[in-house]
Structure formats: C-alpha cells, structure tokens
Amino acid sequence: MTFPDRIKSKQAVIGIIGLGYVGVPLALRFSQMGFRILGFDIDAARVERLNQGIETIKHISSDAVATMRTSGFEATTDMSRIAEADTAIICVPTPLNQYREPDLSFVTGTMDAIAPHLRAGQLVSLESTTWPGTTEEILRPVIEAHGLEIGTDIYLVYSPEREDPGNPDFTTDTIPKVVGGSTPVCLQAGLALYGAIINTVVPVSSTQASEMVKLLENIHRAVNIGLVNEMKITADRMGLDIFEIIDAAATKPFGFTAYYPGPGIGGHCIPVDPFYLTWKAREYGVHTKFIELAGEVNAAMPQFVLDKLIRALNARGKALKDARILAVGIAYKPDVDDMRESPAVEVMELLREWGADIAYSDPWVPSFPRMRKHKFDLASVDLSPEILASYDAAIILTHHSNVDYAMIQQHSAVVIDTRGQYREEFDNVVRA
C-alpha cells in the first residue's frame, strides 16, 4: 500500500517529534480525524503528563488531551520507535544562539536520533522555522547517508507551522498549510498527509520556497511592528495617542493594516525568524537592512518603557532603586501561558538591574517558568485593591482579557500602560 493510500485509509501511524505549542495541536487534529498518533519528546515529565491525559499547554485542556489519549495517542522519549510510525513530523525549537545566529541543534539532534531508525515508505516533514535550504542541506544528506533515496524510498517535505496560540478565530484545521517537497513525488505525499487534516493546503515549488514563505510572513510582522513602535515614540513626543491614531487609520478599507505597539516583541517566531534570513542572506552578499533596523527598534522598547517608569516615579519623588514594581502580565501575548521571548521579561531584567523590588501578576503563569536566559524565583500575585496600593507602580506588559484594568487604575499609585488599555486620560496613567 502506498503512502497516500495509507493516509487515505487512515491506517498510517502519525509520528510527531516535539510535543510543545506546535506538536500537541497537530497531534490533536490528527487524532480528531481518526489517526493513531505516536508522539516524541525529550522531556520525560511532559511525556508522562500527556500519557496521563493531563494538559501541558493551558489553552489545550486536559479533557482534550485525555480524549486524544483514549483515541490511541501515546507519547514516548524513545526515538527508536520512529520506525513504528509512517511519518516523522519534526516540530522542535529553532532558537538563536548568543550571537543571534541560527541554532539548529534541536533539529540536527533529532535527525541524529531518528535517522538510524527511518525506513522505506515513511515521510519526513520539517515544520520548525529555519533558513531556506535547511531541508535539502541538513536533513537530506543525513537521510541519504542511511541508504534511503529521497522520492523513491522515503519522502521529504518542508511545511512551516502557522500556529497562533490562543487565537479564537483560527485553529489548526482552518489555517492554510504551505507544503514544499524535495521532489514532485515528495510534494504529492506531503499534500496527501496534510490534506487529510487541513482545509486548505498550498503547494509551492520546493522546500526552499516553503522555508522562505515562513520567514516572509514573520519578517512582514516584525518590520511593521518595528514601524509602529517607532511611530509610538514619535507620537509620544508630540503628545499624541498612538492607539487613537492607529484605530482611526484602520477605518480605511484598503491599503492599511493595523499593527499595535508594545513593550517589545515576543513569541517563538517574530523575535527570532527574521535573523535566520539575515544570517543566510550574508552567504549571498545581501545586507537585510529593513530586518536589522526593525530588530533594533523592537529591541529598544523595553528601555523606552523603563525610561517612562523612571520619569513617572521621579515626578512623584520616588527613585526606581528599592521601589516596589508590579508587572501585570508576563506572557508574550494575551490569554496564553507562552513565555518564549516575552518582552515583559526583558523589562523585568532591566528593573532588577536598577535595584527595584519586582513582583508580577499573571493569571496564565502561576509561577515563573524555567527559561534558557532568565531566572526569577517568583510566583504570580493575586490582584486586589490592597495589593495594588502596596506597590509604587504597576506596569501593564501583557493585556490578558481576564484582568480588571479599572481596578488597577483606581488603586495603583502609577500605572505604566504599554498596551493601550486606557483610552481616557487619568492622572496616574502613563502611556508607554
């Protein structure tokens, strides 16, 4: 039976490597469509929780995980079991190293672990964001070194993840899926795989084109966020409300897309992905000026917020050193528990450097998680009038929907609003 036939008959076992914010929603969707899932992760604690039917990501409930488990989902740390699956869908992190260069160690580590156990008839799909050429230059040689011919024995595709955690308007099945194959036969296998679970599948000419699609999407956002952050600084100097200006501009039904400023940029994509292209472009003698300028503007926003806080405290006769500061919302975006590259943490680091007494309140993040670059021994503070009054300032860094912003304004000495939560003028609210 051919690979497309196994997919069509739902006899294929779907192997997914990396059970995080991309892998779990993908597994859930395959399970909903009647496939048996074998999930892989190097985190033994995460594997155990999933096998117990317990959520590991807040916006995907334990009920959903338990249902997937009873439908045949199994998680394991044993990469050799990839031989049992018909697919190896790779959803592992691709961060930057300390020099802002691509770190593919999770991808290469995964390939080293699974390559000896790959077999004829399988499909390998990379979903992790990376530079154009990764699939052909990194994955393909490893597979071929184990005696498998691409397009004949085994299929190789690149299909970038497009998950948007916490977005109520789009789910895994309704977000169109771009697919590029190493060969035309590989592309057809990839279309069969993703066409079984995604409403719209978009084929492109190559894995390199598919890799570039993902980078363009996120560079588009990074550059426009950089632009609006720069506009925020300009509007602030002029005494104008940038949120009022954006909302008014957004009434134009063509030629304008609203992007909103904040304390920086966060998440697994926008702060990282543009620099994958910047790095690769140097190989071709191209200097990506827009990308690097947007990165500079966005990286400067935490300092802009800090300066606003210092001025607000100074106006009230208070120094930042030893001041009690409450960060409100520390996830990278509203209504998720995702802390990856959160600009709130950069603000907290600056506050710590200045000697402030820092606390935070975030209903989605009950305790500060283990992070690669940051460490705070903190737990979330419950908001109340008494608690708010005990701090010298509150900084709104992430605008979760289940937070009482009116109470924050009424009971805080100073509120630094980085997210445009207050459109009225208040004596104790400073826009940042």
Summarize this structure briefly.
Helix content is 38%, strand content 12%. With 432 residues, it is α/β, with parallel strands linked by helices.
Describe what you observe in this structure:
There is one protein chain. It contains 15 helices and 13 strands. It folds into 2 domains: 3-205, NAD(P)-binding Rossmann-like Domain (Rossmann fold, 3-Layer(aba) Sandwich); 242-431, NAD(P)-binding Rossmann-like Domain (Rossmann fold, 3-Layer(aba) Sandwich), CATH 3.40.50. The protein has helices at residues 3-8, 23-32, 44-51, 62-70, 105-114, 134-144, 184-195, 207-237, 242-249, 273-282, 289-299, 301-315, 343-353, 385-389, 405-411; strands spanning 13-17, 36-40, 74-76, 87-90, 123-126, 155-158, 177-181, 201-203, 324-328, 357-361, 393-396, 415-417, 429-431. Helix 8 crosses helix 11 (289-299) and helix 12 crosses helix 13. It starts with a helix and ends with a strand. Helix 13 (343-353) links the parallel strand 9 (324-328) and strand 10. The longest helix is centred in the middle third of the chain and has 31 residues, at 207-237. The model has no long low-confidence stretch (mean pLDDT 95). It is of the alpha/beta class and 432 residues long. The strands form 2 sheets. An 8-stranded mixed sheet has the order 3-2-1-4-5-6-7-8, with helices on both faces. It has a 5-stranded parallel sheet with strand order 10-9-11-12-13, covered by helices on one side.
